[in-house]
Amino acid sequence: MKPNQDRARLRMEARLRSGCGLLGAIGLLVCLALVGRAAYLQVVQGGKWREIKVGQAQASFQVPVYRGTIWDRRGRPLALSVQRGSLYADAKAIESPERTTRVLASILGVGRRELRRKLNRESRFVWIKRGLSTEELRRVSQARVPGLGVRMEWGRYYPHRSLAGQVIGFVGVDGMGLEGVERVYDGVLRQDPRKVSAFRDGGRRRVWIRNEPPPVPQERYGLRLNLDAFLQDVCEAALEDAVRKHGARAGEAVLLDVRDFRVLAMANWPPFNPNTYASSSPSSWRNRVIADAFEPGSAMKIFLMAGVLEAGVYGPEQRIFCEEGEMRLASHTIHDVHPHGWLTVRDVLKVSSNIGAVKLAQALGPRRYYEELVGFGFGRKTDVDLPGESAGLLRSYRRWRPVDFAVAAFGQGVGVTSLQLASAVAAVANGGLLGKPRVADAVVDEQGRIIKSLTPAPRVRVVSQKTARRLREMMEEVVQPGGTGTRAALSRYTCAGKTGTAQVVDPETGRYAPHKVTSVFVGFAPAANPRLAMAVVVHEPEGKGYGGVVAAPVFRRVMEKALPYLGVPPDKEPEDGPDRPRLVRWDGGLDWAQGPSVRTAPSSSQAQSQVVPDLRGLSLKAALAVLKAAGLEAVPKGSGCVVRQQPAPGEKIRRGGVVTLRLKELS
Fold first, then answer.
1. What one-character DSSP code corresponds to residue 262?
2. Best CA proximity match to 534, nearest among 459, 437, 464
3. Which helix (H) or strand (E) holds 382?
4. What is the C-alpha to C-alpha distance for residues 235 and 561, in angstroms, rounded to an integer?
5. Which of 133, 146, 586, 630 has its CA 20 to 30 A from that of 657?
6. Residue 207 is inside which H or E element, if any?
7. Cβ atoms within 10 Å, residue 480
8. pLDDT tens digits, residue range 80-119?
9. What's the number of CA atoms in the CB half-sphere (13 Å) around residue 86?
10. SS (H, E, C) 83-152
11. DSSP H helix total and E strand total for the chain
12. Is 422 exposed, middle or buried (0-12, 13-18, 19+ CB in 10 A)?
C-alpha cells in the first residue's frame, strides 16, 4: 500500500505544481493586462482624460466686451451701451399658451398671432422680445407667467434722441452696426467677448478662488467724432424752422472746417431717432446729405467762374451783354429773373445772371468746364466715412448737346449732393485745396485717451491761390446790398456765398414741374480768413422759394452762433439794433444767442437752469455720462439700472445741481 500512496502523493504534488503554474501564468497575464491598460490610459489617452478631469472641475465662460461709446468732439456721448432685459420663453414649460399670449400682448404691444406662433413651437428657448423698456420689464415680472425668463443683454442707447440720427446710425438686436457711423466703424466698436475659466463646485456653480476679483463686462474701444453736438443742434434747429416756415418737403445742411474738411455738423430734416429705428421707415434712416443728388441751380456758377478766371478767358471787370433778360438758343429760350444789359463778370455772379453764365461757359468751352467740375469733386464720391454716398450725376461733356451745356452753366441737368457742394466751396475758401470730408476723428479707449488718430487724407489743389482769392472777393459781393444773398450777411463777421434756385424734375412726366424748386445757399465765413463752409438745401418750399429767401437765413443763423462758439474773432463792426447778438456760455463754449428759441443755448437769465434728462432704464455708467453732458451731478443709490430719479424727467434744476438715482438689479 505504501508504494501506491507515494505514487498518489506524487501525482497530487504534480497537479498542485501544475495548478500553481497555471494560476501564476494567469496572474501574470492579468497583471500585464492591467499594466498595459494603465499605460494606454495614461500615455495614449492621457490628454483626453486630463480634459475630462479639468472639465469636471473647471468651466469656461465668456465675459462681454460691450460696444464702444461714440463721443462728439468735446467728449459728449452720442451713443452708449446699456444693459437691457430681453424676454424669452421655454415653449414646453408654458402651461396655457392662450393666456400667456393674451398677457404678453397687453404688456409688450406685440401682435397675438406672432406671439401664438412663437409659443406653439416645440422649443425650449425662443425669443419673445429683445430690449424691454423698464416698464415692460416691471410688468412682465409682476405677471409671474410660468415658462418665461429674462436675460440681460447689452443694447445701444442714443441719449440725444434724434440729434444727428442719420449720421450716427443704429445697431441691430445682434449688436451689429447697420447704418451710419455705427456701420462704418463696426469693426472698431464691436469686439469679441473674452474667454475666461473658473472652478465649479458640486452643484456645477462657478466658484472664483483666485486672488484677483472675477472679471466684469468692459468696454474696449470707442470713437470720437469731429461732429459737435452743439453745432449739430444749432444746424438742425435752423433747418427745421426754415422747412416748417416755408412748407418744404425736406432739407439738409452740412458744416465743414475749411482747414481740414472735418464735418462739424450734418443735419437732415425730417429727423430720425435711432432709439426707435425698428418702428421707423427705412426712408427716414437715409442720410440725404450724402445720398440724395439734386440740381443745385445757380450755386454752380461759382465753379464756372473758377474755370473762367483760372483759364484767363475773362477777368472780373470785363463786361458781358446779357441780352436784356432773354436769350434764344436753338429752339430754347433762356431767361434771367431780372433783365440786364451790360454786366461785369463779378456782377454776373452777384446778380446771378443765367444769360451771363451761358456766355461765359461758351467762352470757356464744354471740355474745360467739365474738367473744372470734375476737379472740384462733382460726379464722384467724396469718400466721406459714411455708408450710402451718391456720386451725383455729371455726364461727360461729349454727351452734352448745346442746350445741355448751356443749362449746366447755371446748374440744371447736373446732380450734386449737399456734401459735394460744401466740400467744393470749402476748397475755394481755403485757397484752392480740395480734401476728403471726415466724420470720425480718433479711436479712443474707455477713458477717452487716443488709441489711433484717423488722419485726414492729403488735400489736392484744384485752383490757384490767386483764382481762389479773386473768387472769394466776388462771392463776398453776393451777400452785400444788390446781391442775391443779402439775407445771409452776418452782423459781426464778413462772409461770402452764392444762392441757387433750381427747378425740380417731376418723376412722372420727366419734365420740370412748374411750381417746384430746390432752394440752395452755399458759403463761408469769415470772408478774408475763412474758417467754416456751409451748404443749405431746402427741397420744394412753397411760394417764392428763392435760395436767397429760404436757404440764406439758415446760413446766417448758424454762422452767428458757430463762429463765436469756436472762438473765431469778429472781423467787422457790429450792426445796431435789437438783434445784435450777445455773448453767453454754453457747455464750456461760447455762443451768440439771438432772441428766444426752444433749442438755442440758454440766455443769461436762463443759464442757471437745466432740464433734467430721462435716465430711467439706463445703467449707472450711461446715466452718469448723460448727466455729465448736461452739466449735472449724480448721487447713485443701489446697483443695477435706474428705476427712479429725483428730480423727475423734464423738471428744471440749477445747472450743476444734483440728481438722485435709485438703481435696482432687474435680472
1. B
2. 437
3. none
4. 10
5. 133
6. strand 206-207
7. 14
8. 887 777 777 777 677 777 777 777 777 777 777 777 777 7
9. 17
10. EEEEEEECHHHCCCHHHHHHHHHHHHCCCHHHHHHHHCCCCCCEEEECCCCHHHHHHHHHHCCCCEEEEE
11. 21, 30
12. buried
Residues 6+ apart with CB under 8 A from 472: 428, 429, 496, 524, 527, 530
Least confident of 39-43, 228-232, 535-539, 545-549: 39-43
Q: Residue 591 and residue 588: Cα distance in Å, rounded?
A: 10
What is the number of residues in the chain? Answer: 667
Q: What confidence tier does 604 reach under pLDDT thresholds 50, 70, 90?
A: very low
> pTM for the whole thing?
0.75
If one compares 491 and 155, the residue with the highest pLDDT of the two is: 491
Residues 471, 523: contact at Cβ < 8 Å?
A: no
The helix, strand and coil proportions of the chain, stated in percent and rounded to the nearest 5, come to 35, 25, 40
Cβ neighbours of 514 (radius 10 Å): 9
Question: Which ranges of 248-300 does DSSP label H, i.e. alpha helix?
Answer: 282-285, 288-291
Q: Is 298 a catalytic residue?
A: yes
Catalytic position from the list 81, 162, 298, 619: 298
Residue of 93, 100, 153 whose CA lies nearest to 124: 93
Residue 534 vs residues 166, 262, 511: alpha-carbon distances, Å: 18, 12, 30
What pLDDT is stored for residue 596 in this prediction? 27
Measured CA to CA, the distance from residue 559 to residue 550 in angstroms comes to 16
Q: What is the pLDDT of residue 587?
A: 38
For residues 292 and 294, give the distance between their C-alpha atoms in angstroms, rounded to a whole number. Answer: 7
The model's pLDDT over 125-137, given as tens digits with 9 standing for 90+, comes to: 777 777 777 777 7
User: Positive or negative CA dihedral for 536, 534, 547, 413?
Assistant: negative
CB 430 within 8 A of CB 530: yes
Q: What is the DSSP string of 557-579?
A: HHHHHHHHHTTPPP-SPPPPSTT
3-state secondary structure 6-18: HHHHHHHHHHHHH
- Are 168 and 275 within 8 A, CB to CB? no
φ, ψ dihedrals at 465, nearest 5°: -60, -40
Q: Which three cell numbers stand for residue 393?
A: 450725376
Q: Which residues contact 259 (CB under 8 A, 6 or more apart)?
A: 430, 531
Cβ atoms of 428 and 466 within 8 Å: the answer is no
Output phi, psi for 171, to 5 deg.
Answer: -120, 140
Q: Which amino acid is at 561?
A: K
